[in-house]
Here is the input.
Amino acid sequence: MPVPYPDDSPSGGFLTAYQGRFDLYSAGHTHTAPVTVEQWDSEPAADTRMPWDESAEAEFVSGSGEIAIWSDGRDHELSPLAPGTWKVKVYCAGREEVERICDDDGVADGVEIYLMKFWPAS
Here is the structure.
């Protein structure tokens, strides 16, 4: 990767795109956040299943079609994509609550949640 994580990555944003990856910045620390991944044939409508705290979009190039989710290490691997250029829209909820809990108690498992929607870039 041209920009190693986390040493040369900026902090404080929500979504930052890099060559071959994108970084998400949680509102908390030392917690587990559930992630749902969806693949669409074309750009999906805005997600209204819940009130989202944040959403952002990026372009993602996958040479293998594989998606790897990392925190302190390679936690999960998914292979739903074909190799190529994809768009991703990421939604997040629970940010204020996870920040409060992590500041007060230290651990807020399952409070902050993510939804990632991928579709082919045109």
